[in-house]
Amino acid sequence: MKKICRSTSFVLLLLLIPLCFLSSSTAERKYDDIISRFQEYLRINTAQPNPDYFAAAEFILSQAKSLSLEFQVLEFVKGKPLLLLKWPGSDPTLPSILLNSHTDVVPAEPLKWSHPPFSAHLDSHGRIFARGSQDMKCVGLQYLEAIRRLKASSFRPLRSIYLSFVPDEEIGGHDGAEKFTDSDIFSSLNLGIVLDEGLASTNDKYRVFYGERSPWWLVIKATGAPGHGSKLYDNSAMENLLKSIESIRRFRASQFDLVKAGFRAEGEVVSVNMAFLKAGTPSPTGFVMNLQPSEAEAGFDIRVPPAADESALERRISEEWAPFSRNMSFEFKQRVSGRDGTGKPVLTVTDLSNPWWALLEEAVEKANAKLGKPEIFPASTDARYFRQRGLPAIGFSPMANTPILLHDHNEFLDQAEYLKGIEVYESIIKAYASYVGPGGKESSKDEL
Ligand SMILES: [Zn+2]
What we know:
Blueprint: H1 2-42, H2 53-66, E1 70-74, E2 82-87, E3 96-102, E4 121-122, E5 127-129, H3 137-152, E6 161-166, H4 177-182, H5 184-188, E7 191-196, E8 205-206, E9 208-212, E10 214-223, E11 227-228, H6 237-260, E12 271-279, E13 282-283, E14 286-287, E15 291-292, E16 295-304, H7 310-321, E17 328-335, H8 355-366, E18 370-371, E19 375-377, H9 383-388, E20 393-396, E21 412-414, H10 415-434
Parallel strand pairs: 3-6, 3-7, 7-20, 8-18, 9-19
Antiparallel strand pairs: 1-2, 2-6, 4-5, 5-21, 9-20, 10-16, 10-17, 11-15, 12-16, 13-14
Helix pairs in contact: 1-3, 3-10, 8-10
The chain binds zinc ion.
Zinc ion (ZN) binds at residues 102, 135-136, 169, 197.
């Protein structure tokens, strides 16, 4: 009897060994396929100013077809396709979910990269090097991979899920997300929540964003009587401009000190950085050295948090940074307000009064991951167009323990982080798409 048992176990063991190998190699092949698809998307050169949008669109469409998603190619501006995919929910009366990502990337300087920026090289540490690996082709494809897993598990969404792959985010989104959010198609989507991009986190908690700073691109100009370079006199253009620059630098330092001392997060202060200085009288060898010029200009990239006192800042600009009493003037190359039509800061609520926030927190936790404290995004993203239309929009790119390399040389994402992000999105999409509403289907219209 004993002998028979032993031989049976032996036979079983013999049967199980190849099964184990089979299942582990199947899993490996599955992961290889996921990484290959990510690499394929990264290898499409969608760098501004000449992104190959149609190659990206073709790739996304092939993915949509393989997942049996509905799709539309929208071209609000010729040559700039925007792809809208849909996984219909079983209750079309419930507000839907939009997962947004942009297909363009910023340019790269190949000679300064350790691997070519559009090679999607996978190194021996598991890092995938490519422009767009963090910003934000990762997110666009993670959405699709999460849907692939949900479909494989026979999940059926209650709410419809839309995915938008938009052009031109890196140059302001005017021909992409802005036109999209202005369109009738957009209004017809009946959206309840939008997910958009965030930033990598250098610790184990994902960063998450509920608002963003607005760009104010300021040019100040000084004028004054020209004069001999040897003469000391008041009100020269250069002197007037330098006084302003000194004042601006003091303000910059006061804001930066708040961040350095830990009183404010980066997105909560007004940042000011000089973008250009334009002055001097050109000569064949450089500049005329014995002449004080009659005009001088400087440009500043200012980023203003939604809760900042915008009129106080404008007063500071007109009274201290470019006062007419010092022959100065100013203009904005861009001045985006962080306020809505009623003057309220444009922010997405991140407490339990916003069910989408609570669902996100819970879903991330369920996927064994952690969220950091919600932050104001330091720069601009397309999320502002969604928030301006009164929609809750959360900025989130699941990359933990990763250096922040967007727009930098050698942008990379670890493949394990990428795979983990897919699990996290699977959990979020499942929670969002299954959300009935606080009082069941009947009260769905009031839930937001
Ligand atoms: Zn981006």
